[in-house]
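User: structure tokens for this one?
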Amino acid sequence: MVPQIMIAQNCSYYKVQSPIQIPVDKYFNTKEIQLEKLMGVYESKDNILYALHPELVFVDDTERECTFLCPDCYKHFVEKGIVNPLSLAAGIDHGDADCIGLKKLNIFERMLVAKFWLYHSVVKIQRKFRSSNCSEGKRMHGHAIMFPHDAPDAVSFATLLHMMYNLTDDLTDSKIRKFCEKCITVQFLGKEEEIDYLMHKISGTSIIKARPHVVQQWLLILQRVSSAGYDNDPDISHMTQELQSLIAKVNAHVEKNVIRETNEDIVVRDEFETQSANNNNVNNGDSLSYSLLSNEDKKYAQHLKEKLRTIVSIANACNIDVDPQNRYQWASRRASEPASKFDLIHGQEDLLAGAFPDVFPFGKVYGNQLDLKRSQIRHLLLQYNCHAATCRELIFYLFSEEQKAHNIIGISNAQKAGNLAEYHHLH
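Assistant:
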């Protein structure tokens, strides 16, 4: 049975927000969305609201309403009779966009919808060469390489959209160019005839192109429910044509500025790359594999020097400086409008919610001003909908933050022990 202690206490959106019309296809046909479905709230037969995921509630043979509980919730709610601090009943509700049928964002669309950029994404497209079968050899695979910015970059696609029609065409193109250069680069690897085939093949997919109706549906929802600052953006509900035009220009700019790499010394097809390609066929949806590249990847470089030659060429092509003393290190891109968890009103909360709106539609994480606790990270990555666990950029960010925390603790302990000399190279 559902424990009485799980009766929902705070349902500010439940049956209060009016429905909203969002586009559902490329023709901008619309459907009505009930915003309360985003919440982890279940309404029982006797009209009581419980802080439960409706998907996990079922009716047993005796017509009783029951639910599944994770071990932590069972221990708190059932055994101890208290509220689990990391539960829906405690107000930890990130929102679940799957419940209202929003399209899954691809790598480019997430960057258009986000408030902060943490990485510059380089999407590398190459033919799949593992099989000797001719038809198999014509398949493609893609790999997204994430270059961290030197600081989170504050952006707003809705503001760019609003500004677009108050500017001349030259200024608009300049804004779009700067916007895209910070956001994403696409590189095709192979022979000239292979690249022509790849570009033709991928033109009909959403791997490297933003879909206007998907961007609009997400922005419309976020402007209504997110506390991450989307309500301060210009209203785009009546800017459908403008949105289509701007995204068409953004897509055209990305496609026009693809990097065609045909140098055989650069087009490396080692076993590591092929192994990664086995499970990443880009003919079906957004199925890119991911890598995060940073200054700490020395061991990676030693074992995969041939692979790193490709990475270095990509870095050079994208104007990401490579250290001449160590060609396997590269400088971060400069953020034009840098932000940090120390500057934002709610710190880490605002940064995570703004950078990953598809994981945190409500704009709420755990209320942390600074870093997440390990128990919170564990809770986040074990969510039943797997949104956080399958968001590679979020996992990279959490890992980087954990590394920074360990470095700070290490330096602090070394200073207390009088062994700070070993850290002199970190100046």
